[in-house]
Design brief:
mainly alpha, two-stranded antiparallel ribbon, 19 helices, 4 strands, globular, transmembrane, transmembrane helix, ligase
Length: 484
């Protein structure tokens, strides 16, 4: 053995080298293969937090003081977390030169709403008192919808949020059905049979809104699964939508019934006319069987439906109060036509402009709560609320936003229908949800635990109007490889 011969110690590891190379071949030790922590997953896919916002709406918050300036719910806290997360991600992307925050049209439209409410707050009788209203409207109609828009990047994100809407609706629908069947709901027509879910008698409209959102989400997911050739999934979603009809019926919410019917009709007509006709026949047959055959809420539902068409003759007290509140809002606007009286100022001007027959409040009871009289603090019409509190400046900004979302989403659905893409049903869900919200605003305004869901709907509609469902949104999100 010479000095040029390799020593024995150098030869021993040679047979092991191929084994080491073999173990390292399938890069399992790379950073992508490591287990992802919760924060990392959230940063990579913030739509998970958006879905959590939806589900947290179902958390009971107990009896609330409706006269308080601010109500903070778990869903509100989560929505602000979503705003912070998406704002940080978008700012990081812009700082790294990867694009703009949101599409220019979206920035202009949402910015117009912000300017309108700011002008109304500054011009109000007491700007400090209008501050809470300014913050609330900014949260609901600007910040959270923009955060939703930033959190949606592809079909998976969209399906996740729609699935959360469906999950929340199934939870609330199950609770509401039990309340009706066991007589433990809110007071209605001499009994305690009105389904209100986990929201209590002080927020009787909340459950019907959540169930309506879920029904429309299920419809869109069923259409998407049908277009993708997944019949079992389509059947499952269709059955879920059908199961939500009963709790929606026993919520006895006329506004939700009208809005849901209009939304389903628009979504199906834009997606498939023949399917819309078949759906109408099926719905009619199901209503006959459930109400006429099984008697599920038959007398009460029939009476409630008939009241919709007889409000011009001898309306019930709640309807006459609503008409008087609309008249009050119109009179307030006539005295303050440009900038209105300011956010949260409607109650301070109500009595000076209201008809003499307007009630002092509405009675609530049941669902675990005693009798209470809730004051009428808004006109129960979002458009008249904006008109009276923000004048023509605010209403113009809101109208521009709503019309842009409506026509933009409808245009996208028609494109999907022409191209027969996989995400056609998801577009139908977006136009259905937005239609429901715009119709419901004719009979209601923001307020209550489910207010944050209005932001979710506007964010989903913004995704449909300003981006293409099924493709990556042009908002330059942080790529997964670059996310912390």
């Amino acid at each position: 053995m010479t000095l040029l011969d390799p020593p024995q110690t150098a030869r021993t590891p040679l047979p092991a080298r191929p084994a080491q190379v073999g173990r390292a071949a399938p890069p399992p030790r790379s950073r992508r293969a490591a287990p992802r922590d919760l924060l990392g997953d959230l940063l990579r896919r913030p739509s998970a937090l958006a879905a959590l916002v939806v589900l947290l709406v179902c958390v009971p918050t107990g009896d609330k003081d409706v006269t308080a300036a601010v109500h903070i719910t778990p869903a509100d806290v989560a929505s602000l977390g979503l705003v912070a997360l998406c704002g940080w991600r978008a700012a990081t992307a812009v700082a790294r030169g990867r694009g703009r925050l949101i599409p220019t049209r979206a920035a202009l439209l949402f910015g117009g709403v912000l300017v309108g409410v700011a002008v109304a707050a500054i011009a109000s009788r007491d700007p400090s008192e209008s501050l809470s209203g300014f913050i609330r409207i900014t949260q609901v109609f600007v910040l959270v919808p923009i955060a939703m828009l930033l959190s949606l990047r592809d079909r998976r994100d969209l399906g996740l949020v729609l699935g959360a809407l469906l999950g929340a609706a199934l939870i609330e629908g199950a609770v509401g059905a039990v309340q009706y069947l066991t007589g433990t709901g809110a007071s209605y027509d001499g009994g305690t049979v009105r389904a209100v879910g986990t929201f209590g008698a002080s927020d009787v409209m909340a459950m019907s809104a959540v169930v309506s959102y879920g029904l429309l989400a299920a419809l869109g997911l069923a259409l998407e699964a049908r277009a993708a050739g997944r019949p079992r999934a389509a059947l499952g979603y269709a059955l879920a939508a059908g199961a939500l009809v009963m709790p929606l019926a026993v919520s006895f919410s006329r506004g939700s019934w009208i809005a849901t019917g209009a939304a389903v009709l628009v979504a199906l007509l834009l997606t498939d006319v023949r399917l819309a006709l078949r759906g109408a026949l099926f719905t009619t047959a199901a209503a006959v069987v459930l109400v006429g055959g099984l008697g599920l809420g038959g007398a009460s539902v029939t009476a409630r439906l008939s009241s919709i068409t007889t409000v011009a003759g001898a309306p019930d007290h709640s309807v006459s109060d609503r008409y008087d509140l609309w008249t009050t809002a119109a009179r307030i606007w006539q005295d303050h036509p440009v900038t209105g009286v300011g956010p949260k100022e409607f109650p301070n001007y109500r009595d000076a402009h209201a008809p003499l027959r307007l009630s002092s409040g509405s009675d609530t009871a049941g669902a675990g709560a005693g009798f209470a009289r809730e004051p009428l603090l808004s006109p129960h019409n979002m458009y008249l609320l904006v008109l009276s509190e923000q004048g023509l400046v605010g209403l113009t900004a809101f109208a521009a936003l709503f019309l842009a979302l409506l026509f933009g989403t409808a245009r996208q659905v028609l494109r999907e229908r022409a191209g027969r893409g996989r995400a056609a049903g998801l577009g139908a869900a977006l136009i259905g949800l937005l239609t429901w919200q715009l119709v419901d605003f004719l009979y209601a305004d923001i307020g209550g635990t489910t207010t944050v869901l209005v932001s979710v709907v506007l964010g989903l509609a913004g995704y449909g109007a300003f981006t293409a469902p099924g493709t990556r949104a042009p908002t330059a999100p942080v790529p997964e490889a670059a996310a912390p």
